[in-house]
Design goal:
The chain is an alpha/beta fold and about 200 residues long. It has a single domain, classed as Rossmann fold (3-Layer(aba) Sandwich), CATH 3.40.50.10420. Helices cover about 30% and strands about 20% of the residues. It is built from four helices and twelve strands. A seven-stranded mixed beta sheet has the order 3-2-1-6-9-11-12. A hairpin with a 4-residue loop joins β7 and β8. The radius of gyration is 16 Å and the shape is globular. Its cofactor is Mg(2+). It is an enzyme of class 6 (ligase). Belongs to the 5-formyltetrahydrofolate cyclo-ligase family.
Amino acid sequence: MPGAIDHAKRALRADLRERRALLSDAQRAAAEAALTARLNDLVATTGARSVSCFLSTTTEPGTRTFIREAVARGIRVLLPITREDGLLDWAVAGDEDEITTGLHGLPEPTGEILNPMALDEVDLLLVPAAAVDRTGMRMGWGRGYFDRTLGSMQKCPPAYAVVFDSEILDEVPRDVHDQPVTGAVTPERTVVFPLT
């Protein structure tokens, strides 16, 4: 039976989905351009030569321009592929990648599939989120893929949630399996959370 935390997460996710759906195409395009600049700056600042990212849906902060530009600059970009067992496989982004619909209706690459261990080679993780709070606690969309990924890495590189600025909240509901992130990147700013 779902508890208070599950109910609070469901309500917050519904509110966040509704807010994202209200953005116009022009607002989304402007946000993607600004976010691309912020992500490029983060890659440059960290010196990352290999990153993980995700193919954004139409309502998420847009990552696709960043991915194309990073690949063109010679950055190795790994994109997630969902699995039935709750883990993520990965594929290296290319210039002419085809995109398919994966589990849960999410966009995924069609390239050569690498196992979950491929993530051990990246310098920077860029992960989707519904929201993140000021302590760095990330709240995802409820399937647990990225919590499992972050929680299973022996040596986790810096991990940044990619969200809209209004999705950095004072507090998000948290459960024992939820994993924190190093920081957040929005179209307006990059935030590094204090170590707790």
